[in-house]
């Protein structure tokens, strides 16, 4: 099968969803799509779009496609695991060094200014959808990147600010009296 | 009902008897095998086995230690010399150290937790509501899968994760359940937390901490003398039969001697070391070693890791209850009657009276009575420095019951507590007589004589 083959993706939960075209090498970041490619022949995939069955917007799916396309040359997570297994658990530092120069590593991805731009225009709902799409398609680097980005939002910030950034209503703000009642209940339930 | 076992001596040596029972540790009866021994609560015994693991409990040594525990005055049970990790309270104000001075704190009626094994308790099933499966209108993260929440949490310190729990329901389950059975692990954490440890586990840890002292006590190794003593240490049997034995012999306030070792102390003795062992709040001598100028060393008693010189306040029978010295001639007659000998040779509590305090030793029993065995002397300087309180003395109260238990001095001014009472007594019981003597003050009375009848037991039946 040609490495430069173009695959088509479509969200089947949304009848009006766009069909996204992604290079095969980029789509292989997804372990789910890799598995599909192993089980469907080329002719079928040429005629049919790969179904995406997750309730996300086209915009989020477009962002995911944008990300895998940009980082299509990054070593695939599944390949790294396979190489690791072949080498009997050793990291193979020499090979890794070569890859670093040519293709980059996950650390480069995390620290990349491109990713900063990628996430800069993303609102909370979009961030959530990118994360669950990456999780659904099992795109580990993107999934980790989203988790770390959310952690960055939460880290060292007061609750009010985090709620504001993530557009969440503060439904758990408690009064001092409520706090005292909760502490009393904890003492009653656990320490008596 | 709780299980008990007894460490006792049987025909086949020291053994742990079968299991007995008691239904109430305070008021009920022990239904144990009818052998005299040391009773152990079964749960405590299991903890002791854990504490000494992998070695088995040294029953012979344990029984020896228990039998050597001192029995306080007017008490039938031995004293361990500590407060049982808070289960008892030492009353040092109204009791002397050689008396039964441990009281139980207030009676805890029906506290069933002490009979339970806290490790048999299982965390309750989690009652917390799981996050909603439908995202809330204003919280798109509410339906985030738990594995993603956990992945986000991995990038955060605990404090931030806890804050995140207040931001979104999605982060609620992070500290709730981590396996298929939703047990409340926070419950278990709080039950075992050092600060908020529950009463059952606290009691178990109290026993465990006490057992560490028991393990240390069992550790010392007895130094057997070689069958053929080197000449420098060997005791001439002829001299041994001839010479008299003096010193701090006889019973201390322990239960007596268990093992005796006799050696000759050579004139070339260069160094003497004592081996000590801490138990309760007291450090005891358990052994000693003697070294001559030529480097010959002999060890007596038990050998403990701690070998040093200590200032001794008391010696009791953990191991060494008697140190005797044979002299070449009997003590000169009348030598104990000399004026200052009592101050120097008696066992005084809490301190030796100062030199400027006249003791009137002729009014005491013969000195030999006071320096053999453990018969501490205590004193009260009720007249105050230079007798300055005497002019304010208004009365004397004597509490007695088969002997004088306490004398109180009453003054018409504020006098420090140590000058107001001679002897320690918690409270006067009904059967105790209290006789009051009033003094009218200076010029009002003239005391010519004070007669007092007191029964001194013979040395063989004496107790402190």
UniProtKB/TrEMBL annotation, chain A:
Keywords, ordered alphabetically = Ubl conjugation pathway
What are the start and end residues of every segment in region (Disordered)?
A: 88-107
Q: Which InterPro entries match?
A: SKP1, SKP1-like, SKP1-like_dim_sf, SKP1/BTB/POZ_sf, Skp1_comp_dimer, Skp1_comp_POZ
Pathway(s) it belongs to: Protein modification; protein ubiquitination
Source species, domain of life = Eukaryota
Q: Do the record's keywords include Lipid metabolism?
A: no
Please state every residue range assigned to the domain named SKP1 component POZ: 18-72
Coiled-coil region list: none
Q: Name one GO biological process term.
A: ubiquitin-dependent protein catabolic process
| SKP1 component dimerisation domain: residues covered | 140-185
Transport: is it a keyword of this entry?
no
Alphabetical list of PANTHER family matching this protein: SKP1
Q: Which family does it belong to?
A: Belongs to the SKP1 family.
**What assembly does the database describe for this protein?**
Component of the SCF (SKP1-CUL1-F-box protein) E3 ubiquitin ligase complexes.
Explain the purpose of this protein.
Essential component of the SCF (SKP1-CUL1-F-box protein) E3 ubiquitin ligase complexes, which mediate the ubiquitination and subsequent proteasomal degradation of target proteins. Controls sulfur metabolite repression, probably by mediating the inactivation or degradation of the metR transcription factor.
User: What's the protein here called?
Assistant: E3 ubiquitin ligase complex SCF subunit
Give the source species: Achaetomium macrosporum
Record lineage = Eukaryota, Fungi, Dikarya, Ascomycota, Pezizomycotina
Automatic annotation (TrEMBL), chain B:
Q: Tell me which residues make up the DUF7600 domain.
A: 258-308
Q: Which Pfam families match?
A: DUF7600, F-box-like
Q: Which residues belong to any copy of the F-box domain?
A: 141-171
> What InterPro entries does this protein map onto?
DUF7600, F-box-like_dom_sf, F-box_dom
Q: Which domain of life is it from?
A: Eukaryota
Per its record, how is this protein called by name? F-box domain-containing protein
Q: What lineage, starting at the top, does this entry show?
A: Eukaryota, Fungi, Dikarya, Ascomycota, Pezizomycotina
């Amino acid at each position: 099968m040609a490495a430069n083959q173009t695959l088509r993706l479509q969200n089947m939960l949304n009848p009006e969803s766009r069909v996204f075209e992604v290079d095969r090498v980029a789509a292989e970041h997804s372990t789910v799509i890799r598995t599909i490619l192993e089980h469907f022949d080329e002719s079928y995939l040429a005629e049919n779009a790969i179904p995406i069955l997750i309730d996300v917007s086209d915009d989020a799916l477009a962002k995911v496609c944008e990300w895998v396309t940009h980082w299509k040359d990054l070593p695939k997570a599944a390949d790294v695991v396979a190489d690791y297994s072949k080498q009997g658990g050793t990291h193979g530092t020499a090979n890794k060094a070569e890859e670093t120069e040519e293709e980059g590593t996950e650390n480069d991805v995390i620290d990349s200014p491109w990713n900063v731009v990628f996430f800069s225009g993303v609102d909370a709902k979009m961030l959530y959808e990118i994360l669950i799409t990456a999780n659904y398609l099992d795109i580990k680097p993107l999934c980790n990147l989203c988790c770390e980005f959310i952690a960055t939002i939460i880290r060292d910030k007061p609750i009010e600010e985090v709620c504001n950034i993530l557009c969440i209503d503060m439904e758990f703000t408690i009064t001092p009296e409520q706090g005292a009642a909760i502490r009393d209940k904890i003492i009653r339930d656990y320490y008596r | 009902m709780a299980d008990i076992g007894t460490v006792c001596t049987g025909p086949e040596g020291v053994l742990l008897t079968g299991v007995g029972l008691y239904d109430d540790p305070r008021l009920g009866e022990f239904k144990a095998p009818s052998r005299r021994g040391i009773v152990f609560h079964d749960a405590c015994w299991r903890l002791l086995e854990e504490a000494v693991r992998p070695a088995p409990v040294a029953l012979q040594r344990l029984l020896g230690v228990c039998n050597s525990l001192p029995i306080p005055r007017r008490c039938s049970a031995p004293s361990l010399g500590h407060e049982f990790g808070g289960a008892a309270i030492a009353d040092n104000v109204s009791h002397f150290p050689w008396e039964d001075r441990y009281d139980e704190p207030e009676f805890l009626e029906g506290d069933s937790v002490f009979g339970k094994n806290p490790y048999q308790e299982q965390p309750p099933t989690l009652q917390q509501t799981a996050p909603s499966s439908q995202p809330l209108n204003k919280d798109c993260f509410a339906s985030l899968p738990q594995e993603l929440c956990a992945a986000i949490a991995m990038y955060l310190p605990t404090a931030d994760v806890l804050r995140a729990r207040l931001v979104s329901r999605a982060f609620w389950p992070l500290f709730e359940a981590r396996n298929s059975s939703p047990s409340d692990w926070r419950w278990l954490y709080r039950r075992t937390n050092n600060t908020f440890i529950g009463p059952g586990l606290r009691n178990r840890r109290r026993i465990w901490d006490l057992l560490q002292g028991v393990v240390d006590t069992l550790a010392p190794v007895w130094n057997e003398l070689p069958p053929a003593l080197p000449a420098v240490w060997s005791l001439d049997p002829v001299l041994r039969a001839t010479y008299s034995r003096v010193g701090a012999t006889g019973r201390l306030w322990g239960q007596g001697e268990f093992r005796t070792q006799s050696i000759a102390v050579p004139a070339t003795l260069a160094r003497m070391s004592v081996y000590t062992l801490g138990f309760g709040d007291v450090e005891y001598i358990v052994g000693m070693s003697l070294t001559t100028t030529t480097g010959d060393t002999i060890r007596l008693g038990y050998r403990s890791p701690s070998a040093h010189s200590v200032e001794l306040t008391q010696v009791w029978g953990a191991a060494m209850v008697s140190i005797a010295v044979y002299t070449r001639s009997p003590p000169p007659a009348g030598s104990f009657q000399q004026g200052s000998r009592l101050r120097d040779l008696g066992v005084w509590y809490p301190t030796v009276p100062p030199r400027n305090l006249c003791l009137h030793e002729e009014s005491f029993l013969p000195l030999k009575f006071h320096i053999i065995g453990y018969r501490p002397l205590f004193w009260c300087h009720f007249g105050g420095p230079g007798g300055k309180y005497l002019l304010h003395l208004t009365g004397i109260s004597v509490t007695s019951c088969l002997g004088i238990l306490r004398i109180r001095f009453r003054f018409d001014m504020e006098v420090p507590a140590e000058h107001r009472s001679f002897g320690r007594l918690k409270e006067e019981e009904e059967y105790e007589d209290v006789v009051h003597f009033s003094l009218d003050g200076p010029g009002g009375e003239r005391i010519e004589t004070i007669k007092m009848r007191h029964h001194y037991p013979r040395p063989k039946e004496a107790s402190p």
